[in-house]
């Protein structure tokens, strides 16, 4: 039997839900020397995402801006780990290959990629997948990615 090609190319980022992204970013920058990356508000206005570069991975600070899953998580559990996100080469293909995930919702995410939180919570950890998709995504202002090989280096 041939070895299976890994579905996840690498850990893309670790999401930390916070009340104040600016204060949290200052701590990680000043204490650990992390470099600022993208700072975006999701297209639906539900959260602000502040990225801090940490070598070959990234911390994503998730500041809820209105009611929704991130705000619910913050209210129920307080600040802390929200999710681990894996980069994949084709998001729709990755979801279709997972048990019970072919109907998972794909949304516009930060840094020009698409995201999907999977239903499974292995070991109690929320898992997000991110990557390009060749299909249109509702609510996304950018067209679907062309069918080309994705650079597995650090995205945008």
Task: Calculate the terminal CA-CA distance, rounded to whole Å.
Answer: 36 Å
**Lateral strand order in the biggest sheet:** 2-3-4-1-5-8-7-6
Give the tally of structural domains.
1
Strand residue percentage: 25-35%
| Structural class estimated from helices and strands | alpha+beta
Q: For this structure, what is the CATH homologous superfamily?
A: 2,3-Dihydroxybiphenyl 1,2-Dioxygenase, domain 1
The third-level CATH topology is: 2,3-Dihydroxybiphenyl 1,2-Dioxygenase, domain 1
Which architecture would the CATH scheme give at its second level? Roll
Which class in CATH terms?
Alpha Beta
Biggest sheet: strands, sense, closure?
8 strands, mixed
Helix content: 10-25%
- Mean pLDDT level: 83
Q: Which residues sit in consecutive blocks of at least 5 with pLDDT less than 50?
A: 142-156
SSE string, helices as H and strands as E: EHEEEHEHEEE
- Helices, by number, come to 3
The whole-angstrom Rg is 16 Å
**Annotation, overall tally of beta strands:** 8
**Which word captures the global form?**
globular
């Amino acid at each position: 039997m041939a070895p299976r090609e890994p579905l996840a190319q690498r850990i893309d980022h670790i999401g930390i839900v916070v009340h104040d992204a600016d204060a949290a970013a200052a701590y990680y920058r000043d204490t650990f020397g992390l470099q600022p990356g993208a700072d975006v508000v999701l297209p639906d206005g539900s959260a602000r995402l502040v990225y801090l570069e940490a070598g070959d991975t990234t911390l994503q600070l998730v500041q809820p801006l209105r009611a929704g899953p991130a705000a619910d998580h913050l209210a129920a559990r307080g600040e802390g780990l929200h999710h681990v996100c894996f980069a994949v080469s084709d998001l729709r293909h990755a979801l279709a290959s997972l048990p019970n995930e072919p109907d998972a919702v794909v949304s516009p995410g930060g840094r020009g990629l698409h995201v999907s939180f999977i239903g499974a919570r292995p070991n109690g950890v929320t898992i997000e997948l991110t990557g390009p998709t060749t299909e249109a995504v509702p609510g996304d202002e950018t067209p679907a990615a062309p069918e080309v090989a994705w650079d597995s280096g650090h995205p945008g």
